[in-house]
Amino acid sequence: MVASLMCLSVSTKYYQFLLSFGVLGGLSACCLFTPSVSTIGHWFNRRQGLATGLACTAGGIGGILFSFITLYLAPKIGFPWTMRIIAFISLGMCSVACLTLQTRPSAVVVPGPTQKDAKNKKKKPGLAACLRKAIDFKPLAHDRAYLATTIAVFLIEFAVFLPITYISSAAIATGQGIGRQHAYRLIALLNVGSVPGRALPNYLSDRFGRFNVMIVTALVCAILVFGIWLPPTVLETASEAALTAFAVLFGFWSGAAISLTPVCIAQVSKVEEIGRRVGTCFSISSFGALVGVPIGGAIVDASGGGFTGLVVFSGCFYVLALGGFVVARFVAGPRMIAAVY
Question: What does the alpha-carbon distance between residue 289 and residue 296 come to, in Å, rounded to a whole number?
């Protein structure tokens, strides 16, 4: 991750940005996030939602910190050194994380050696073998609860990154009197909302059910997109107050898409399978984020720079995500509506 940011600081061409931050940074972020949230499942059960939510609030805090560093420091010292400062901060944080992150050995079942392993004990496992152990698609074929949860997570991941990516661009295009500085500040305000939004829904999920809370958050996000973001976008009369309110509220209610989805996966998995299943689910869901943002950009281009189609597209996928979690809730858990699951 540090190498990614350092390479980003000296990038000047599009392919350099894509390779440094898009490819290397994306791989690094996944390799940091997935085992971290999976490890929490080794140590917590009844309050796993709250523990994961508290851990994930760091993402919102980092989003605020790094957004303001970029916004206010880059004009003074330049983009390259701003990225290097962020890289040095990441170096310190990741060093502490690598020294303190610990699995629970008693929660992980380690199979004994087989005859085949004994014959090949001198051979080091290759990359393909490591990937087969880290990502396992076989449970999707015979575990309906895990399959339904994976589809629901894919849909929510597809939907959540559209407003996050395009809220500043939409504010500049449709806002009345909204300066670029405040438009870019909306990202930081969205992260301000996501800090409590990653903890409070997770706390409630331990009492009212993880899937139940995900259904509520997906419903509220769909309402926010269609009720607050869409009307001023259609009329091209978006005010600073309306967009600020949407950014903070959406940041709060969309936080569960990051912090609560791994808890839902853990709920339909055995303890020793959590890491592999979370990694598999997010590897599939990553394609939603990968294709969703370019599709959103294509919709904006096809609309002549208008953002109405993008907002409707985002809201529709939140409705699909809502349906996905409703289906997963009844496939994985009890059929009673009032049941805690």
Answer: 11
